[in-house]
Amino acid sequence: MTGHHSHAGEGFDAPAPESAYAAALGPAAEDAAVTRLRTALRHDGEYPRASLEREFRLRRAALADRLALRSGDESDATEAARTAYELLAFDLADGRFVLGPAGPALSTWEASARPYVRQEYERWAELTDGGRDATLRGPAGS
Known about the structure:
By secondary structure, the chain is an all-alpha fold.
């Protein structure tokens, strides 16, 4: 499969970063979107709170992953791992918003949850035009 690599194990072909983040907004625009989501979570809004929180966690983890990949800095990698595991824990507790083929309970993610973020972001970006359309198009957005 082009744009994927199999380091996630257990037969799952995890998206490569280039594929997962192909439709992503630039880092500054994505950071602004994450900030808006954080602010929206502090207030009641038109979106269901769990859906909004899931989008916040996903986009924050993906941004941290992208920054870590770009910088190669250990502290950035630590932050990327932390936010990835936070998304994974959220999805384990409330799996309604999982979009990718390999669920959050897969033991593969114990080694690293960053490929899980890439899987989820890639599918989310397909459904939202890389975050340009805040409303999911499809049954997962219901």
